[in-house]
UniProtKB/TrEMBL annotation:
Protein family according to the UniProt entry: Belongs to the calreticulin family.
SUPFAM superfamilies according to UniProt: Concanavalin A-like lectins/glucanases, P-domain of calnexin/calreticulin
Statement: the UniProt record of this protein carries the keyword Transcription: no
Cellular location(s): Endoplasmic reticulum membrane
Biased composition (Acidic residues): 583-610
Extent of Polar residues compositional bias: 569-579
PANTHER family: CALNEXIN 14D-RELATED, CALRETICULIN AND CALNEXIN
Signal peptide span: 1-28
Spans traversing the lipid bilayer: 481-502, 523-542
Chain positions covered by the region annotation Disordered: 259-292, 552-634
Top-level taxon of the source organism: Eukaryota
Name of protein: Calnexin
Amino acid sequence: MLESTMALFNKILYFCGLLLFATGLVRAENDDDGVTVELSNYGNQIRTIEEEQYHSPQINSKSIYFAEHFDDEAAFKKKWVKSEAKKQGVDEAIAKYDGKWEIQAPSRRILKNDLGLVLTTEAKHAAISALLDKPFEFKDKPLVVQYEVTMQEGQNCGGAYIKLLSRGTNTKADLRQFHDQTAYTIMFGPDKCGNDNKLHFIFRHRNPVNGTVEEKHSKKPNQRLDDIYKDKEPHLYTLVVRPDNTFSVLVDNREVNGGSLLEDFAPPVNPPEEIDDPDDRKPDDWDEREKIVDPTATKPEDWDEEAPAQIVDPNAVKPDGWLDDEPEMIPDPEAKKPSDWDEDMDGEWEAPLVDNPACAAAPGCGPWTPPLVPNPEYKGVWRAPLVANPNYRGKWSPRRIPNPHYFKDENPFKMTPITAVGFELWSMSPMLLFDNLVVTDDLAVAEQWAQQTYALKRTKISSDSQSIWGRLLRATNYKPGLWAVYAVYCAIPVSIYVAYLVRRAREDSLAERALRLAGEQPWLAAAAALVAFALIAGLCYLCCGPSADPDADYKKTDAVTEDDPPQEEPQTQKASKSTLEGPEPEEQTEQSDDQLADQQEEEQTDQESEPVEKAQIDTEGAGDGQRKRKPRKE
């Protein structure tokens, strides 16, 4: 009887498991055929989007200087050239650019037939580049650079930035010699090592006086960007440099940095008009001491430097009942020497000490000593007071002289023309995927390009998050009561097992009769299990289903709202791979409260007007570390 009952119980569990598995398969097939996404706009709107078949982006525009979707491997091999050079300034064993580049589908399939350029190796230098369709001249049109990066295995240490190579790299033979010292005009993109996260925008400025070239680093982004290095999802990076000397850096169509080429870079484009005289020296008699020891002060006669800081309390009295002759610890009277104790090897055995029971009721045991109290006569070591220095002349500084290297460049936008693009990287994390690179002079073209590529991916990722398990996990964030449902569901097999134990303890109990009935009527037991499962599934749907409460709706955009908590930048910094890669130092700037408020209002307006295809993700943050490398001059 018992064996048949347990066999029936196993069959019921198997049946429920098969039912769950079949439900998951049906859901997966529906996801492949056509994706239905529920998007709620603060609880007021629900729309359905059917996924379209992905096609490589096609834009016919004269404003495009370079466009690459990496979906055509044959065309890629004709256009892109792998470097055959060696990295300069490193050990010969690791100087060769032997990192491997391949055209592959993403590890996590998002769009069918979508391919990308993947750096498959780790801890190796890798470089690859391609010529522009036509050179970009910095004249009266903006420069727009846009590309996608997917860190498929996250990023521990390494960069994923792009270099826009300067005029002089004009042929494929030049591309084969592409290395870290190859002249570039702009470097742009993410970089991370440890907790040192950065989003670089560096341009190389030519000194109009002596012709030297110096790298200029943009200020830090005004938001945190930690998630882009660990969420393993595609992110869109956009750089816009305008003829009016302003720039914007966007991540996933959201501006995270911006400003002026003249004001928001370090070192600044234009040097100061005056500098400290390098030949000026501080006079020997220059006294910078604001305070000095009073030369007329003397130690008082009654000042005793030998007096102790604490003395015995003269008013202390030994408490009544203090047991002077009783020790605080005594040998354990119940302890016995182990039978295997060898005094020749282990020494003389001693019982362990325990608290003296005689001291339990007494105020104390052992010799009594009065406590110490602060000494009222204690003054410590005497020191003469400080007085104003009559010879104080202030802090010395060298005199200012006109800067012999001063110049004023009012239009740094006019940079060296660009003739090629390239990736010259080193990474400790493999499988970096690059996709959908475009260089243009029209931001609308870049946005159209993103609509055909990145927007489709974000829509698909959002739709995948609407699966049953995704909804369950999200629901627990704002419906903690759902955990009670999980507890009830897990308690069902436990309850059946307890009933079995009760049956063993009480022969003619209610549990026994229920198990006997289940053995005689197996279909009735199966029907009861299905009904219980249906009730639990219905309760889960009620907990996880669409909510009419706007505050409980799933937030599909990362627009800033009034109830979003402010973010603070971390202050901890760590060293990085300065010996291998090293974009230069940046200076931290802060936005005023008014600027942040204006930016939040603009982001809310943009979020309400953008189409669904521009679904965004939250990239709260900017890299904080300072990876030091001195600006390079030529």
